[in-house]
Write a structure and sequence with these properties.
The complex is a heterodimer of chains A (364) and B (523). Chain A is built from 16 helices and no strands. With 364 residues, chain A is mainly α. Chain A has one domain. In chain B, 34% of the residues lie in helices and 24% in strands. In chain B, helix 15 packs parallel to helix 16. Chain B is globular. The chains are: A mainly alpha (364), B alpha/beta (523). At the A-B interface, helix 9 and helix 10 of A face helix 11 and helix 12 of B.
Chain lengths: 364, 523
């Protein structure tokens, strides 16, 4: 017996949650003496009102797709990977290592190599907590969050002491070189004659992220490994009965999850900065958790939620720029969205379910 | 008022019943669990309530005990209407409940458990000594002997159940509801429980017994009410009915209570087990040297009270846990160490396993039926489209066919396992395991939580598999089931096999002694 149609479950519930979050955000803005309607207008026009805004929104969304997918894959196996931040940091190191080790003739060759490097480094960083969980029973939530700090410290050390070019005062690596600069969105869209802002950092990684969404969907719902991952996530005792090894599935899942988080680096490190800088991840690893929650761990949901959070990120930056609303309020709005779409999901879901039941019975 | 006219009419007929329910209805969303239920339970009687799973027995008793509120209807205790919003009110109204799963604090003593929630003041000592005196009286009166100082965790299941009964009596219960009380007891313990219940009845207590065992209903109740699909079908005097008639009332059609089978024709040895030992993760030895032989075309039934190593036996043979000793399947040694084997490799070698707990192990409740049918066999080539993708279309088709052959209802492969009834869930597991045509079927509690109609079907399938020349190792805590299905019976107690009997010359008392760990003389 279906409680409510699938479309309501996937779209209506998050939409209502989102509306509530926005209404409360509006009240908060009202309370600090600003005009919520004006604030909304600035956010919308700043994030999606121009191709410049869209460029930034999609750039952030690309980051969030990778980290959101990472969290979503782990969720399917019942694992809570909070280490996206650290894995993405290590992914950056992977990109830098690959790109600085050789002189690459063309971005088209460099991109796959960098992506592989990013994924390998991210996966390796996730592998240690995964092994500790699978073999020693150390809880993955604790270990992955600790590994975020270790990753930040490691990168700090490497940038200051190892990777910094001689004579530079800036704790960052050397530039990767002009051949490795990824095509920006305006170049790609220019090929089909669509004009797009030249100043925005969105680049070809966006399409890699979209491809990753499709690939993760196929992995989870169409392959044997995905079947085993989902089975293990739903019931470990039943999986053991079926001969699915908890150790193997924990390892595979976390390697894939860490790899996806690491691949974020092709967007921010390779695509935007073109060198490795400190704190390049900027919290995207944590936003990924919210994205996965709101996207209900479905790759397409993750894709949409990532765009929404990209909008919030870019709109929020504009808001801080053009009004006297403090930057911190953006965090409040994002937190409210996370709270309502993620944590308080059932608050909306149950009344909607009830409404559908009542309506369904009347029409039947 | 309405009540005046009704009681006025009934007062002339008989003394007020201990419990009367009038027109009780309760729905959970679209599901109507109780439809307009009326029932009268006479004072000082033992009243049985039977029905299949999901018939609404538990809901009705939960309403009576204040866990749920009825949507409509009223409850009368001793002729007076009462309102029971919570279990405190139920206790005040003199109702005590003994749940199927005991609600005891394991590391508290018997006395502490009894006064828990019924302390007289801030200091425990007065309450404890009062309870100790009361306990001694109760023990004398009703054969309810338990050591008041013993810790619950050190008591046998039968004794723990007595503590539950004592808890209710200590709270001055006049009406006692017991939910499936004998499921966890040995036959001897069940007999003792029935003696206690008869003593309670003699003292004027009213007892409601919820069970699915027709034999118990016939043995101890005065009247019996049959529920089906949320409705009260009928209430009859036990003396005036037969088990066949009750079964028919429960299911709504004629049911075969006896398994029909011909004598076994055992063939070659399929499974041989020697000195099999299993130590659990707490370091306790759960199997202490099992030897057994199982031949093609026979059913070996393992009888015993739950928790005496039967589960461990099934799981180690199924490759889920590890052990020491030796085992051979069709003459080939089985790896018991888990180093080169797991559930997967066992399946490859021809062992199928219907686990005891289908909710925990046998199924993934959130998965659709078709995903559950693939479960465990998801490596099989016929379920793969190519090197990368699974063939979901083939799986759906295969599942639909299996569901049709096993009469799973509703026959919808996309429905989540959670939404099927217990019997249909079990049929999904059976279809998956039996249709792979295994050499050896390990099957635990095949009909636990399964309605009577499905029991008949499941038993037939097991016998058919045997007749097809397969070896079947059956574990069940239902002695009736063991007796009617098995070609040989082995009784397990404390990790050992106490003895083997043939069902023809096994008498239940002797098996009961073996189940309790007492050797019943020379075999």
């Amino acid at each position: 017996m279906e409680r409510m149609p699938k479309w309501a479950d996937a779209f209506l519930v998050p939409l209502i949650s989102l509306l509530i979050a926005f209404v409360i955000s509006g009240l908060v803005i009202l309370a600090i003496g600003e005009n919520p309607v004006e604030a909304m207008r600035i956010m919308v026009s700043g994030a999606i009102g121009s191709s410049y805004g869209w460029g930034y929104t999609l750039y952030y969304a690309t980051n969030f797709m990778f980290t959101g997918l990472a969290v979503a894959v782990a969720f399917h196996a019942g694992l809570f990977n909070i280490g996206g931040e650290g894995q993405a940091t290590l992914g950056g190191l992977g990109v830098a290592t690959v790109l600085l080790s050789f002189s690459w003739p063309h971005w088209a060759v460099a991109l796959p190599a960098a992506a592989v490097g990013a994924a390998l480094f991210g996966a390796a960083w996730a592998a240690i907590p995964a092994w500790l969980q699978a073999r020693r029973g150390s809880h993955i939530v604790i270990t992955t969050i600790m590994f975020n700090f270790i990753a930040a410290a490691l990168l700090n050390y490497l940038l200051v002491n190892v990777m910094r070019p001689a004579g530079s005062m800036d704790p960052s690596s050397a530039r990767f070189g002009a051949e490795t600069v990824l095509p920006r969105l305006h170049e790609i869209l220019g090929l089909v004659g669509i004009p797009f802002s030249r100043a925005s950092p969105a680049n070809i990684s966006l399409f890699v992220a979209l491809l990753a969404c499709v690939a993760v969907w196929a992995l989870i719902w169409r392959t044997r490994l995905g079947f085993q991952i989902r089975a293990f996530g739903k019931s470990e005792p039943a999986s053991v009965y079926a001969g699915i090894s908890p150790f193997r599935i924990t390892m595979y899942t976390m390697l894939i999850s860490g790899g996806l988080a690491g691949m974020m680096a092709i967007n921010n490190v390779m695509g935007e900065a073109n060198r490795l800088i400190m704190n390049a991840v900027e919290g995207a690893g944590f936003i990924g958790i919210a994205v996965a929650l709101m996207g209900r761990s479905h790759p397409f949901g993750v894709c949409l939620a990532a765009i929404l959070f990209g909008f919030l990120y870019q709109g929020g930056a504009e808001l801080a720029l053009w009004t006297s609303i403090p930057r911190e309020l953006i965090v409040v709005i994002q937190a409210l969205v996370i709270l309502f779409t993620g944590a308080l999901d059932n608050m909306v879901r149950l009344p909607v379910e009830r409404a559908f039941r009542r309506f369904g019975r009347r029409s039947a | 008022m309405v009540i005046d006219t009704q009681t006025g009419r009934q007062a002339a007929a008989a003394p007020a019943p201990a419990i009367e329910l009038r027109g009780i209805s309760k729905s959970f969303g679209p599901v109507q669990a109780n439809k307009d239920i009326s029932i009268r339970v006479e004072k000082g009687s033992i009243h049985g309530i039977i029905g299949e799973n999901g018939a609404g027995k538990s809901t009705l008793m939960s309403i009576l005990y204040g866990f749920y509120r009825a949507d409509a209807g009223e409850i009368l205790i001793n002729g007076a209407p009462v309102d029971i919003p919570d279990s405190q009110a139920a206790i005040r109204a003199g109702i005590g409940m003994v749940f199927q799963h005991f609600k005891l604090v394991e590391n508290f003593s018997v006395l502490e458990n009894i006064i828990l929630g019924a302390e007289d003041g801030a200091l425990l000592r007065p309450s404890l000594s009062k309870a100790r005196r009361a306990l001694m009286d109760l023990a004398r009166e009703y054969e309810l002997n338990v050591d008041p100082e013993a810790l619950i965790e050190n008591l046998s299941v039968g004794h723990q159940q007595r503590v539950e009964i004592l808890k209710a009596l200590y709270r001055q219960a006049d009406i006692l509801i017991l939910d499936e009380p004998t499921g966890v007891l040995t036959p001897a313990e069940a007999d003792h429980l029935f003696r206690i219940l008869r003593n309670l009845k003699r003292e004027g207590k009213t007892i409601i017994l919820i069970t699915h065992k027709l034999r118990e209903i016939m043995e101890i109740t005065d009247a019996v009410s049959v529920m089906r699909r949320g409705e009260m079908i009928s209430t009859v005097r036990t003396a005036e009915t037969t088990p066949e008639q009750l079964a028919e009332l429960m299911v709504g059609r004629k049911v075969l209570l006896r398994v029909q089978k011909t004598p076994a024709k055992p063939g070659a040895t399929v499974l041989e087990v020697e000195n099999l030992r299993v130590v659990d993760d707490k370091g306790v030895e759960r199997l202490r040297g099992i030897d057994l032989t199982l031949r093609a075309g026979e059913i070996l039934g393992i009888a015993g009270v739950a928790g005496n190593g039967q589960s461990e036996l099934l799981e180690v043979l199924a490759g889920i846990t590890t052990g020491t000793g030796s085992a051979w399947l069709n003459g080939t040694p089985l790896d018991l160490t888990g180093r080169t084997s797991d559930g997967q490799t066992r399946r490859e070698s021809g062992v199928a396993h219907v686990p005891e707990d289908r909710h925990r192990r046998g199924l993934i409740l959130d998965f659709a039926a078709w995903e559950n049918v693939a479960f465990g066999y998801h490596h099989r080539p016929d379920y793969q489209k190519n090197a990368i993708f699974m063939d979901n279309a083939a799986l759906l088709q295969d599942t639909a066919a299996k569901m049709a052959r096993f009469d799973v209802r509703p026959p919808n492969p996309r429905l989540a396992a959670r939404n099927f009834s217990g019997g249909n869930q079990q049929k999904i597991v059976l279809a998956r395991e039996i249709e792979r045509n295994p050499d050896l079927l390990l099957i635990g509690q095949p009909t636990r939580g399964v309605d009577i109609g499905a029991i008949e079907f499941i038993h037939q399938r097991i016998v058919e598999l045997r007749d097809a020349g397969k070896a079947i190792l059956l574990v069940s805590v239902e002695l009736d089931e063991i007796l009617s299905l098995s070609d040989r019976i082995a009784v397990m107690f404390d990790g050992r096999i106490m003895g083997e009997r043939l069902p023809g010359d096994a008498d239940e008392r002797e098996l009961g002694l073996l189940m309790a760990g007492m050797k019943g003389g020379p075999a």
